[in-house]
Amino acid sequence: MQKSPVSLDQLPRSVLAVPPLCRCADHSLDETANRALIDHMTAGGVRTLMYGGNANFYNLPTSHYRPTVTFLADATAEDVLVIPSAGPDYGHLMDQAPILREHGYPTAMVLPASGPLSFDGVERGVRDFVEAFGNPAIIYIKNEGMIAVENVRRLIDDGVVIAIKYAVVRDNPAEDALLRALCDAVDPRHIISGIGERPVIDHFQTYGLSAFTSGSVSVAPRASTEILRALTAGDVARASELRAHFLPLEDLRDAISPIQVIHAAVRLAGIADSGELMPLLSRMDTAHEADVEAAARTLLSFDQSLGQSLVA
């Protein structure tokens, strides 16, 4: 695991993969399956792993936190940036900060706040977490009501926050007043497109973003990496062509559950046995398995053929 500081220039060098965490029947980590999934992604060019919503860090018991971040640090090569999550409430943030510091993580993502909150209170909480952690954080903006633009600007100006994972879903991602306001307030290099392949072209073209997260990269790391390369080169046609292969699986994620579907897709595609989801979530209904398996295997097959063509 990388322990050196994270720079803005590093964020666009790899798709920020947001994979599931594979678990055994008793909800303990399945280390073998998780290593298989990590190997699959890194073999496809991924060098940044962000463990957040798809990994269900929201429901991670306090007793599981240290073993989880210890495993992730040990299971990855020195050139792989691992970004675990902390929170979502203030108590978890402050209890988890020294554990992350102890393991040498260079950054961590603050999960969207839950429960009673105010914009200034969220800002104060992020500052307290970073002070205890000792490194700048990434904040995860998933809805309009978590934190105001001026609070975000102060956190970035003061070096408390290095980046924003922006994941507010819009019917038309090219029309997003909050994202526009954030881009006007801070350098867009600080903002990560955080909703996968579907909105990424609009986010890059319209708002000048340069990095993005993906859950489906867990299935197709080469193809997602090629989308990033195409967008970085300004080849929108190539990016659009590649993105089309992700949409069947992304459609199922949107229709059923983004977390449940990607968790199942990894298993049904034969990449790794993702096992059980930590409650308060549960496995996807088996009625959807045939559709998800077909979409996941088709995407994986495309990714494998793309890898062969790139080598050739």
Q: Which descriptors would you attach to this protein?
A:
312 residues; alpha/beta; TIM Barrel; 8-stranded parallel sheet; 12 helices; 8 strands; 10% strand
Give an overview of the whole structure.
The protein is 46% helix and 10% strand. It has 312 residues and is of the alpha/beta class. It has a single domain (11-243), classed as Aldolase class I (TIM Barrel). An 8-stranded parallel sheet has the order 7-6-5-4-3-2-1-8. Strand 1 (16-17), helix 1 and strand 2 (48-51) form a beta-alpha-beta unit. Helix 10 (247-255) crosses helix 11 (258-268).
Distance between the first and last residues' Cα: 30 Å
Per DSSP, the total helix count is: 12
How many separate structural domains?
A: 1
What does the main sheet amount to? Answer: 8 strands, parallel
What spatial order of strands do you see in the largest sheet? 7-6-5-4-3-2-1-8
Point out poorly predicted stretches: none
SS-based class: alpha/beta
The amount of helix comes to: 40-55%
Order of helices and strands: EHEHEHEHEHEHEHEHHHHH
Mean pLDDT: 97
Write down how many β-strands occur, each being a DSSP E stretch of 2 or more residues: 8
CATH class: Alpha Beta
Shape: globular
Relative strand content = 5-15%
Kindly report the CATH topology.
TIM Barrel
Q: Which second-level CATH architecture applies?
A: Alpha-Beta Barrel
CATH superfamily: Aldolase class I
